[in-house]
Write a sequence for this structure.
């Protein structure tokens, strides 16, 4: 693992970053952070509200600011927002300050996990399934670029995913 011993989780909405991140933090004794939750705590409003008032660019600026702070911490597990990788600066921060795990799921799995969630501003469109597919096509190469490991989250329990990630991290440290 990299010097800071941080674990950063990237992937599309619904991939399991927050759920798996909490489990990893519990199993490793690391502190858990969710960048979207940090933004909500600091602003006192929902992500949807920020999108409505400031647009996506305003939200992305807040996201980058929070990531700058969180990546300076040590011994953490961080669940990033799905679009955090859109910024080259964010990708560099993640890549250089921790081990990045891309939680990858199929579009159908992501759709099944997010279709009833009204707190996903980017999916509040005429055709949310098509939007999810578009986001996957755009972001998948960026997630792969920044990731040290890619883990398929389809049809795996949270516990088995966490165990698999820890096994891969231990194996990479032994090299």
């Amino acid at each position: 693992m990299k010097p800071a011993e941080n674990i950063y989780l990237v992937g599309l909405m619904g991939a399991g970053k927050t759920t798996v991140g909490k489990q990893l933090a519990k199993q490793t004794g690391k502190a858990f952070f969710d960048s979207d939750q940090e933004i909500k705590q600091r602003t006192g409003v929902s992500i949807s509200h920020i999108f409505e008032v400031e647009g996506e660019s305003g939200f992305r600026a807040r996201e980058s600011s929070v990531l700058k702070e969180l990546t300076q911490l040590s011994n953490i597990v961080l669940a990033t927002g799905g679009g955090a990788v859109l910024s080259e600066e964010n990708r560099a921060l993640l890549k250089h300050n921790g081990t990045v795990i891309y939680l990858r799921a199929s579009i159908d799995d992501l759709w099944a996990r997010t279709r009833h969630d009204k707190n996903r501003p980017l999916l509040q469109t005429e055709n949310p399934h098509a939007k999810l597919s578009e986001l996957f096509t755009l972001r998948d190469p960026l997630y792969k670029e920044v990731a040290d490991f890619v883990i398929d989250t389809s049809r795996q329990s949270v516990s088995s995913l966490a165990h698999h990630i820890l096994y891969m991290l231990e194996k990479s440290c032994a090299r």
Q: What stands out?
A: Residues 7-174 form a domain with the Rossmann fold fold (CATH 3.40.50.300). The radius of gyration is 15 Å.
